[in-house]
């Protein structure tokens, strides 16, 4: 392992319970996740050389040292919507490679109010009429994108139900997940329609939670951790012209390439890993259609293959490519800042054989994570147990 | 545009639209878009520069009034503000992206209760959105075109 010095490894991971934390302050949630990650790595906050934190809320991540210790370390704040956690990890890993030190922490957290996000047109540079006429609604977008994808690739609406049923089955066994009541495909399909073809059990909801990682560089990682997981690549991409994003009064005709395609291709290329090598994956499942779409966009399967793969249990924990083994966003909800790091937490635990819930068998070595969100941003990572 | 009579019959006000910049004309109704002289990209509503090639400014461009449904859903619950509920209260509404040839435009689909299908033919119309001190405020929408060949 002579090239260890150039690599960054995950040596500790911490996660709070996801769900409602109405009586807990945002920064307390974040500090809890960091302390767990530090404990997992058997280090203390003063050992940390560099930190990155992100939230979609109003608190200041760089005030976390007030809770953890005012050691003088540099603390960078990031805010990139659903990609916030992944961007925190990317920033921390990049800093380690430039020589800021040996150990970095990445943390993401949020404590959202109940209900769907209420978006302001002005924040997106859209005129008032769009919101006033009722089109500034994220769930409409997910439903219309899912419907078109199912149409283009001849996938049944029942496949949407299978994604949710799988998510809740996985969440049921995950003690930190939020929605832990198993539901059958039929129950998911028969639930109240929110925006057809998507029922209420096909959407994730905003909730609360925090996740943190300890990253270490080179040999130091092997001093700290029995089973370090190498961050083989993490790639961030924005949308190119023509992608189909939320809050779009218009779209251009033709192909609608997603930033997920670019980010996943970049991550696989940088890691020297093919999508077919992945043994456990986390995909952004804001709604059940999104998981289906992202399976294709990240190259984990051919577009249109999802119908048979889901029906055959390919993406269940016992299948050939388990996806969202901790319940994903459908089972955990989405504290926006924490979600991307929850994904990495789960893949790291799976690769280490320490899953909180259902453990993927046969000792997986290669994992993948994917986040995607407004206004058209995606980050993907490849994680490897050497 | 036609005049609408408000409740009580005492006051008649001119019909207004949600945003005058969306419309090239009121009668017949036409949507005002922008078209890039550099790369032919059409955007709706128009904006200062082209999102594909950065060329500016964009030329005024009037959109076609007939097209096909590219995707759709139905809004089953009343959106939160800034959505403005009509005087008649909330009822579920269908909406979709309509392929007008050079651009796909998002808009309400009427009738709301129709079992819409991708490929359905529609034409541009206006529908009441809400009522305020200016009168009945209308927005654009796309209406099912039973006359057109499938």
Brief overview, please?
The complex is a heterodimer of chains A (386) and B (150). Chain A is α/β, with parallel strands linked by helices and 386 residues long.
Question: What distinguishing features does this structure have?
Answer:
heterodimer, A: 386 residues, alpha/beta, Peroxisomal Thiolase, Chain A, domain 1, 2 domains, nine-stranded mixed sheet, two-stranded antiparallel ribbon, 19% strand, globular, B: 150 residues, mainly beta, five-stranded mixed barrel, four-stranded antiparallel sheet, 12 strands, 0% helix, disordered N terminus
Descriptive report:
The complex is a heterodimer of chains A (386) and B (150). Chain A has 386 residues and is α/β, with parallel strands linked by helices. Chain A folds into two domains: 134 residues, 3-Layer(aba) Sandwich (Peroxisomal Thiolase, Chain A, domain 1); 229 residues, Thiolase/Chalcone synthase (Peroxisomal Thiolase, Chain A, domain 1). In chain A, strands 3-2-4-7-1-8-12-11-10 form a nine-stranded mixed β-sheet. In chain A, strands 5-6 form a two-stranded antiparallel ribbon. In chain A, helix 3 packs across helix 13, helix 5 packs across helix 10 and helix 6 crosses helix 10. Chain B has 150 residues and is mainly beta. The N terminus of chain B is likely disordered. The chains are: A alpha/beta (386), B mainly beta (150). Chains A and B meet through helix 4, helix 5, strand 5 and strand 9 of A and strand 6, strand 8, strand 9 and strand 10 of B. Strand 9 of chain A pairs antiparallel with strand 10 of chain B.
- The tally of domains of chain A stands at 2
Radius of gyration of chain B: 17 Å
| Strand arrangement across the biggest beta sheet of chain B | 8-9-10-12-11
CATH architecture of the largest domain in chain A: 3-Layer(aba) Sandwich
Overall spatial form of chain A: globular
What's the helix and strand layout?
The complex is a heterodimer of chains A (386) and B (150).
Chain A: E1 8-15, H1 26-40, E2 50-54, H2 65-68, E3 75-78, H3 84-97, E4 103-111, H4 128-132, H5 138-153, H6 157-172, H7 185-190, E5 193-195, E6 198-199, E7 208-217, H8 219-224, E8 229-238, E9 250-251, H9 259-271, E10 280-282, H10 288-297, H11 306-311, H12 328-332, H13 336-352, E11 366-373, E12 377-384
Parallel strand pairs in A: 2-3, 2-4, 10-11
Antiparallel strand pairs in A: 1-7, 1-8, 4-7, 5-6, 8-12, 11-12
Chain B: E1 3-5, E2 12-14, E3 16-17, E4 23-26, E5 29-35, E6 42-43, E7 59-62, E8 66-75, E9 93-99, E10 104-110, E11 121-132, E12 135-144
Parallel strand pairs in B: 3-12, 10-12
Antiparallel strand pairs in B: 1-2, 4-5, 5-6, 5-7, 8-9, 8-11, 9-10, 11-12
């Amino acid at each position: 392992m002579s090239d260890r010095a150039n690599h960054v490894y995950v040596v500790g991971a911490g996660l709070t319970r996801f769900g409602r934390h109405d009586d807990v302050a945002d920064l307390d949630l974040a500090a809890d996740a960091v302390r767990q990650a530090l404990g997992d790595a058997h280090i203390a906050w003063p050992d940390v050389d560099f930190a990155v934190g992100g939230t979609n809320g109003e608190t200041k991540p760089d005030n976390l040292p007030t809770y953890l210790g005012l050691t003088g370390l540099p603390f960078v704040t990031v805010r990139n919507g659903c990609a916030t956690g992944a961007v925190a990890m990317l920033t921390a890993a990049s800093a380690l490679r430039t020589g800021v030190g040996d150990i970095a922490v990445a943390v993401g957290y949020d404590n959202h109010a109940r209900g769907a996000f209420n978006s302001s047109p002005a924040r997106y540079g859209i005129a008032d009429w769009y919101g006033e006429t009722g089109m500034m609604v994220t769930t409409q977008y997910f439903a219309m994108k899912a419907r078109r994808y199912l149409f283009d690739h001849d996938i049944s609406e029942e496949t949407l139900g299978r994604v949710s049923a799988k998510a809740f089955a996985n969440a049921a066994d995950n003690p930190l997940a939020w929605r832990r009541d198993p539901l059958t495909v039929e129950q998911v399909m028969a639930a109240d329609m929110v925006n057809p073809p998507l029922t209420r059990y096909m959407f994730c909801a905003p909730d609360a939670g925090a996740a943190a990682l300890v990253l270490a560089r080179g040999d130091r990682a092997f001093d700290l951790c029995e089973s370090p997981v190498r961050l083989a690549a993490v790639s961030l991409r924005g949308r190119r012209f023509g992608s189909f994003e939320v809050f779009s009064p218009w779209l251009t005709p033709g192909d609608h390439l997603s930033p997920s395609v670019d980010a996943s291709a970049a991550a696989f290329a940088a890691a020297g890993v093919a999508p077919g090598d992945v043994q456990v994956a986390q995909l952004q499942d804001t709604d059940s259609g999104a998981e289906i779409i992202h399976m294709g966009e990240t190259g984990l399967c051919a577009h249109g293959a999802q119908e048979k793969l889901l029906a055959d249990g390919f993406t269940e924990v016992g299948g050939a490519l388990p996806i969202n083994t901790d319940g994903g966003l459908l089972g955990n909800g989405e504290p926006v800042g924490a979600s991307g790091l929850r994904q990495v937490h789960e893949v790291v635990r799976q690769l280490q054989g320490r899953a909180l819930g259902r453990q993927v068998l046969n000792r997986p070595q290669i994992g993948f994570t994917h986040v995607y969100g407004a206004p058209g941003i995606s980050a993907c990572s490849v994680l490897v147990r050497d | 545009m036609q005049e609408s009579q408000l409740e009580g019959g005492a006051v008649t006000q001119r019909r207004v639209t949600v945003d005058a910049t969306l419309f090239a004309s009121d009668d017949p109704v036409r949507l005002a878009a922008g078209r890039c002289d550099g790369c032919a990209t059409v955007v709706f509503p128009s904006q200062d520069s082209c999102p594909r090639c950065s060329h500016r400014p964009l030329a005024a461009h009037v959109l076609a009034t007939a097209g096909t449904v590219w995707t759709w859903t139905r809004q089953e619950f009343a959106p939160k503000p800034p959505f403005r509920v009509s005087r008649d209260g909330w009822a579920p509404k269908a909406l979709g992206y309509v392929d007008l040839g050079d651009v796909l435009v998002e808009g309400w689909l009427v009738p709301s209760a129709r079992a819409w299908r991708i490929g359905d033919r529609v034409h541009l119309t206006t529908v009441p959105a809400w009522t305020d001190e200016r009168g009945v405020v209308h927005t654009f929408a796309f209406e099912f075109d039973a006359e057109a060949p499938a």
